Amino acid sequence: MPSFSLLADPAFFTGxxxxxxxxxxxxxxxxxxxxxxxxxQEWQAQCAELRGEEAPAAPALSLARPRSRCPDCGHPIxxxxxxxxISYLLLRxxxxxxxxxxxxxxPLVELTAALLAGFAAWHFGPGWQxxxxxxxxxxxxxxxxxxxxxxxxxxNLTLPLLWLGLLFNLNQQFVPLPTAVVGAMAGYLSLWxxxxxxxxxTGKEGMGYGDFKLLAALGAWLGWTMLPAIIxxxxxxxxxxxISLMVxxxxxxxxxxxxxxxxxxxxxxxxFWGDTLNRLYLGLAA
Length: 286
Fold this sequence. Notes:
single chain, mainly alpha, 9 helices
């Protein structure tokens, strides 16, 4: 049995965290798929209560139950069919029972979770900073995928992410605590201000409240000094993708584009290269 001292070795620590990322990636797929449905059930129950009606009958749904099944034939997915990436390759991307094609997104999420964890371990080295960065990246990945699917950024993820960022920065893992607290406040208020200016000018809502909370969480992790770079990066990438989709006639002008994935990607970039981006930005502005 390997000694815990092996975790101090950068190569071993990177391998452990990347392997753990594969396993966690499988769980993230469950969260991405089920959390919006759990929220919808809760909303329906609340609406029924307000109307004085009984909550609509629906099977109990949680992140643990019921057991994962094929959405087409209902075949329960066994343990050997649920090995991250490997099972997908062995089954050639199809359900074992009905041979329906399985979306390649599932192994891609698992691989992405592993690569993000491995890169965080390599970049920061063994220690709490790498562990914190990995937790941040896994949550950003989950939020980005949920927003792409549903245009929702659940409070169940954004608010714990904010508090976790402040918790890690109690010990200045990424930035001093005052910088993190100001970052959380400035992150929320900056997009909140843009939201209301856009609404007053156009009468339309330009973004959702989940975007405010996600940027607040990024401010809590990375500090207020990273917010300009995050906003600039996410806006530029979002504009390029949005224009490209409209030019390709794959996205109507009146159809909203989720902003969360761009914020998440910009936050991940700022986590690793934020200081370099800030120096470049300040150098260009000088």
